[in-house]
Amino acid sequence: MNTDLDIHAFLACPTPAAWVDAALADQETLLIDHKNNEFKAASTAMALIAKYNQSLDLVNFMSRLAREELVHHEQVLRIMKKRRIAPRPISASRYASGLRRQVRNHEPQKLVDTLVVGAFIEARSCERFEALVPHLDEELGKFYGGLLKSEARHFQGYLKLAYQYGEKADVERVVDRVREAERELIESPDSEFRFHSGVPQLC
Prior knowledge:
It contains 8 helices and 2 strands. The protein is mainly alpha-helical and 203 residues long. It has a two-stranded parallel sheet.
């Protein structure tokens, strides 16, 4: 599968140039929020293992994903330490909570929707790394370039599981619904800059 083409086709819109400009202007917040997101991704994977522990394909995928995300978390921490960026509390973006509002409350649809949302988060992460890489210094550009393949693999894994545990027609309807919600979150004005924020409206 051509992961780049699949991700660009999967997402409804590219990252706005204004977001890239904001990221380059505030790389400290970029790295802190990226670190937090890697930890959240690992936590989400472990929560899915706990909730759906009889779904062995899901458990195996999420176990590998959680380990990988924690390694990424540690790698970002090392870069922050090298750049003398101290961890500090920052609020979460509206992105993940906005996507989670698309998740139905009953099973097995809840699992399918959760997996589709996970696919979009991973796909957008990959697309944003790709958008940033040409503009970053050598160290950070190399690191983010190296994350492209893993994020693309995570996207594919989430989507594959959604189709495995759901009915094809229903999954496709969910993808269309979440895709539109994701586009709105990415393209609309946002009051703060975060890794997954919309178009920053900064003073």
